[in-house]
Amino acid sequence: MVKRFGDRVALREVSLSAAPGKLLAIIGPNGAGKTTLLSILAGIQSPDGGEVASSPRRVGWVPQQPSLYGKLTVAENLRLFARLERCADPDAAVGRMLDLADLRDRAGDMASTLSGGNRQRLNIAIGLLAEPPALLLDEPSAALDPRQRERLWEFISALAGRGTAVVFSTHNVAEAERYAQQVVVLADGERLFAGSPAELERVVADRPGSEARDFEAAFVAFLRQRGH
Amino acid sequence: MRWLLAKDLRILRRSPLLVAMLVLYPVVIAALVGFAVTSGPSKPRVAVLNEVPPAANSIDLGGQRVDVSQEAKALFESIQSVKVRSRAEAIRKVRSGEVLGALIIPPDITQDLEAATAGGAMPPHVEVLYNADDPAKQAFVQDTIKARVQDANAALAKRFTKVAAGYIRLLASGGRFSFVGGTFDILGLARAEAILRATAARLPSTSPELRRLRGVIEFAHLARQNLGLATGVLSAVGTPIHVDEKVVKGGKTPLGAFAAAVAVTVTLMFITLLLASGALALEREENAFRRLVRGLVSQTGLLVEKLGLAAICSGVVALLLLAGLSLFVSLPWSRVPLWILGLAAGGAAFGALGVAMGSLTREVRAASLLAFMASLPLAVLGLVPSGAVSGGVYDAIRAVSAAFPFRPTLDALQSALGRSGGIVGPVLHLIVLTAAFTALARVALRRFA
Ligand SMILES: Nc1ncnc2c1ncn2[C@@H]1O[C@H](COP(=O)(O)OP(=O)(O)OP(=O)(O)O)[C@@H](O)[C@H]1O
Ligand SMILES: [Mg+2]
To answer: What is the ipTM of this complex?
Structure first.
């Protein structure tokens, strides 16, 4: 895919394929083009070149910025989107998501009164409502506490276990290493690497003169070496 | 779509401040219009210093007493007069703005009037003081006082000409005339001519006096005829031009119904523009827009939903407003279906303009600001009457007004409320505007996500 914003090239011929039942992590510095890539996959933006092989209707999407109504309660937000998604049983879907996001006791609270992390939980829950065959998550764990992060990955791994193809972006390199089967490294709209976390580790570690203390530091050194 | 509509109504219900404003606004408009319509334009407050001694209020015109204060009554009826005791007090009141102007009637005005009828050199005069801080007010007071003094002048002129005509009739036909207590018998030209003719008949035809007498008879005859003409001319002087009023264009909408149509159109415009643009911009501000248009609703569907939301809410408020206004002005309740047609068409067009504003601005605050800023000039342009500006400018204003929903909505409501003109034309116009602005909004939405 190619995407330009005026003179700025956000994506330079980046290719990506996600397999059913697998988790694919996109990592890279700020402004690398992760959100742009996921937005194109989600059908929010159209690419200037290339194409997406699945229809947006069959793809679930959790945007980086929470997209929900502050003046509706948690349950009302979920119910509204369950209805718009034409869930067979909206109330059951709402109940399921309240449990997943651990927001049952906040169900009657206005979304605007939630903490940043809880708002992100609701944002994720809305994206998961329809249980689509493919799921895109843009930095889903960014605002979550460690326990909630673990719950999220548990749930997403369970979805993948049932055959859902999952693509997520993250700044947490360890998270990518731990949960993803596939890693894509983006920097300045360019795909620097695609492969398994183990392969990435090898590429990073095999760098001549590598003396990094941990994976994250090694990753930063890798980016610097490639000119980013 | 209905779930979105229900969602927006719920959000609206949870914004009590906004709803209070949306409801209070029309109530205030209705009250203001009702007040304006029932109380009529107020009379300007003018300080009046009358220095004429009561005894000198009437003047003597050829034996007739004319009460000048009676002739000046019209003046005092068209202003709210504030009695003052001195010139200084009048000036102080004008300066402080307590009164818009002051009228000073000098003590010798009646003497001057009397003297003027006797060929005096000094015309009688009154003095008017203005506060020129506010040019519009000054012009208003100036015009009012001038017009009234003119009326008083005309009334006095009528009295004068009547008296003068009496004199002339006396000269022409003769009769009784009273002057300083005594009564005189005036011969008159007619009788003089008759006497001369009788005398002439008795003179021998060769008499030299007869020729001279015939010359005098001729003169008396001519003078009588021309004086008869003069009375006609004089009475014409005393009769001002009468104004026959006839409405040629603008329909028969009664003022009250017109005011109601304006109030309702302004309310419909404000509420619809604010709601449509705000609700659409809110979808973007809450980041929900992108989630929605990923197959949950079409972009056009979303626009129609916002347009409908705004049109329904403002339509309900406008109907309530009309019900409230009907307490002040009589409205044809039998034509309610036409009211609803006008409100629906106007609401849809304003809604389309609103979503266009919302998709262009993309932020609730900017959208509200634009809606407010655009409303005022639209209303003003739509209300500019023909003749208030030069022809070319008026044509330009009409063209601009036609591109926005205010004028056609006003026309449709005027038709629905007052039977002036058809409603079909304005409604079709509004449908075209609705389609055009929805299309514009649809294009602007491309940069929305
Ligand atoms: N609507 C837009 N108009 C102009 N430029 C844009 C737009 N959206 C993104 N960009 C640019 O495209 C590039 C990629 O942005 P993107 O949001 O995809 O980065 P990202 O990898 O998600 O960054 P982050 O980690 O900070 O979320 C950036 O340089 C950004 O400035
Ligand atoms: Mg991003």
So the answer is: 0.84
